[in-house]
Design brief:
By secondary structure, this protein is an alpha+beta fold. It contains five helices and ten strands; from the N terminus they run αββββαββαααββββ.
Length: 197
């Protein structure tokens, strides 16, 4: 049985802490689902870079497919799957942009190669050859040879403010435990219900 808490973030913190100890690779990895103008869903893996009562934060190129979709349709879903623990956490809710100050602070923590990569990659657009990418990396490396690498204006963060969080724990004979928290709006009290597997 999942031990219910009043605040789903407290339960998430417990589970995430256990995942950090047991998941062999990227306990912060989460599937991000967005939707395009035609209503077609799109899903990919991103990394959680922080969470608190205001939401779950990740960073990307705003000109990428996911960036453009989130700017146009500001709702999304996230899914953590921690196979070593046989657990999942689903989140759904509105998405907003992080502040430039938050993005600058996070960008400054990235290694220099990743900072250069944020400048060099036209993420999600057609790449004519691997050489073309390597050439752009060399160009931006030369351009930012001295001093700090500034954050590109098109690279920043998003914050998903969950209105639904579901905790899923694997059970014998596929009789899984499912606990759902939901609320009508950010800041509203959470309600809970257990779900059939």
């Amino acid at each position: 049985m999942i031990r219910e808490k009043d605040d789903p973030l407290a339960l998430f913190a417990d589970w995430y802490g256990e995942a950090e100890k047991s998941e062999p690779n990227d306990p912060s990895a989460m599937a991000l689902a967005t939707v395009g103008d035609d209503g077609t869903p799109s899903c990919r893996m991103v990394l959680l870079k922080g969470y608190d009562a205001s939401g779950f934060v990740f960073y990307t190129n705003y000109e990428s497919r996911k960036g453009r979709q989130l700017l146009a349709h500001s709702r999304a879903a996230l899914l953590f799957h921690w196979k070593s623990l046989r657990r999942q956490v689903r989140l759904e809710g509105p998405v907003s942009q992080t502040s430039p100050e938050e993005a600058d602070a996070y960008f400054a923590t990235r290694d220099r190669g990743s900072q250069i990569g944020a400048w060099a990659s036209d993420q999600s657009r057609a790449l004519e050859s691997r050489f073309a990418l390597e050439k752009r990396v060399a160009e931006f490396t030369a351009r930012h040879m001295i001093g700090k690498v500034p954050r590109p204006a098109h690279w920043s963060g998003f914050r998903l403010q969950p209105l639904l969080i579901e905790f899923w724990q694997d059970g014998a004979f596929r009789l899984h435990d499912r606990l759902e928290y939901s609320r009508p709006a950010a800041g509203a009290p959470w309600s809970t219900r257990t779900l059939y597997p």
